[in-house]
Specification:
Elements lengths: L1 H5 L2 E2 L2 E2 L3 H16 L11 H9 L2 E5 L7 E6 L3 E7 L4 E7 L3 E5 L9 H18 L2 H6 L9 H4 E5 L14 H17 L2 H17 L10 H19 L3 H10 L27
Parallel strand pairs: 3-7
Antiparallel strand pairs: 1-2, 4-7, 4-8, 5-6
Bound molecules: zinc ion (ZN).
Length: 274
């Protein structure tokens, strides 16, 4: 948290490189687990949110078309909720420190991965974008907070695959940062390294003929299995696992090749911020 408070901001958005987001995730998860992250294991994101960040989750209908999957409330405010029974919108007061998750994400096991990622995404907003002064003054502020200060609304339309290099608005940068930090919270870099070491060790013991070549055929043959295993270990979607491996340099967009294990602190750093 202190790192985020100290970094420069542009349009209210902290300027953070990927390596700094990785560091924040590592620190937060290590602090939550009370030990360094060394193993490939699922992170209980609700417990992380409630016990470590001291925020609570609430589930409600946030829109009539699932266009809003999550919302992070920074200050006490009134929030519009959809009532599908009467097809109306009603406003209710929501307390600061509440992460609202759309109820549709509770519908069945298929939505579990999306619910977990949305929960992690809202945790990331709390860590990165919480207006510290506003929080401190919440109880005695004489000015009612404006909606833009009081909460971040996460629409499905503004989180669609924002590339690292494209120009972004301040709001889009926040979404990009929250997505990347969410991914690192659910799959900490050290945990992914542990997973990859285990995976390659097992494959090598099988004398898999493709594993030593790190060639195109191995990826095509083994990628789906590897991603399914990673999805199961971390309880994330296969696509989230794939994006994470690409971010950490284990999979490349440019050549369908599984790269050798990357030593710690030598992951690719993206320098194209702002
Ligand atoms: Zn968001």
């Amino acid at each position: 948290m202190r790192l985020v408070d100290q970094v420069p901001r542009k349009n209210g958005v902290p300027i953070l490189k990927i390596v700094e987001l990785e560091s924040i995730a590592h620190d937060e998860i290590s602090s939550f687990l009370r030990s360094p992250v060394l193993q490939a294991t699922e992170i209980d994101i609700e417990q992380f949110a409630e016990e470590h960040l001291r925020i609570r989750f609430d589930y409600a209908e946030l829109s009539n078309n699932q266009s809003i999957l999550g919302m992070m409330v920074f200050q006490d405010c009134h929030v519009p909720f959809y009532d599908s029974t009467n097809d109306t919108i009603n406003h209710f007061e929501v307390k600061a420190g509440t992460a609202l998750i759309d109820k549709t994400l509770l519908e069945g096991p298929k939505m579990q991965h999306r619910a977990r990622f949305t929960a992690a995404h809202e945790c990331a907003h709390w860590i990165l974008h919480r207006p510290t002064k506003a929080i401190q003054n919440t109880s005695d502020s004489k000015q009612p907070p404006t909606n833009t200060e009081s909460r971040i609304v996460c629409r499905t339309t503004n989180s669609k695959s924002l590339s690292d290099t494209q120009q972004k608005t301040a709001s889009e940068w926040k979404e990009w940062q929250a997505d990347n930090l969410a991914s690192a919270l659910l799959m900490p870099g050290a945990s992914v390294r542990a997973f990859m070491r285990n995976y390659l060790e097992v494959e090598n013991k099988k004398s898999n003929p493709f594993i030593d070549t790190f060639g195109e055929r191995m990826v095509i043959a083994k990628n789906a299995s590897m991603l399914r295993q990673m999805s199961a270990v971390f309880n994330v979607s296969v696509s989230a696992a794939e994006l994470r491996l690409k971010r950490l340099g284990y999979l490349s967009d440019y050549a369908p090749t599984l790269l050798p294990l990357v030593p710690e602190n030598q992951h690719e750093v993206y320098d194209d911020w702002f």
